[in-house]
Amino acid sequence: MRIALLGGSFDPPHLGHLLAAAQVLLLHEPDELWLVPCRRHPFGKPLAPFTDRLAMVAEAVRPFGPRVVASGAEAEAEQAGSDGTTVELLRFLRARRPEDRLLLVVGADILLEKARWARWDEIERLAQVVIVNRRGFPEQPGGGPALPEVSSTGIRDRIARGLPPSGLVPASVERYVRQKGLYRG
User: Across the 185 residues of the chain, what is the mean pLDDT of every consecutive 10-residue run?
Assistant: First the structure.
């Protein structure tokens, strides 16, 4: 099975994430696409609770059907001793699913940050890296059209100022955020 992994903080998940998911499904045709919220931000940024972010991702991907799932794989990997890095997640998945082929989806912006990632060379050995082009960054061959700039930080700032995130997040995510009172500052 070919499993594409799209990781991130998803704090909250937004239309940019979903456009990236759709692009990966159409251009790379994985058997499954997992959106994998991180447990902790790799560079120490504070995040909404993991359970809320995972629930929002589940809401966001529902329209895609069963091929696209909200995955708690990073939490499972941490329970097994992972340090929360991408390379550790890939090692964990390889050990549990040795027959599967992993694709790691990253934005073109990540290519500029490879040096900050733990063991990028090993990541490339464990998974096929799939690039998604992002507006404002050098275009990568095969990365599809550049995705619009939508930022979770900007969405959280809007909500904290009392503005709705309409048009930036799925309606189901907007309802979840409102019901849980997330990002109110």
Answer: 97 97 97 95 84 98 97 94 92 97 94 84 96 92 91 95 94 96 90
CATH number at residue 143: 3.40.50.620
Query: Is residue 181 assigned to a domain?
Result: no
Cα separation, 14 vs 145, in Å, equals 18
Predicted TM-score (pTM) of the model is: 0.94
Give every CB contact of residue 121 below 8 A, 6+ residues apart in sequence.
Answer: none
DSSP 34: E
Do the beta carbons of residue 28 and residue 5 sit within 8 Å?
no
Structural domain that includes position 87: 2-150
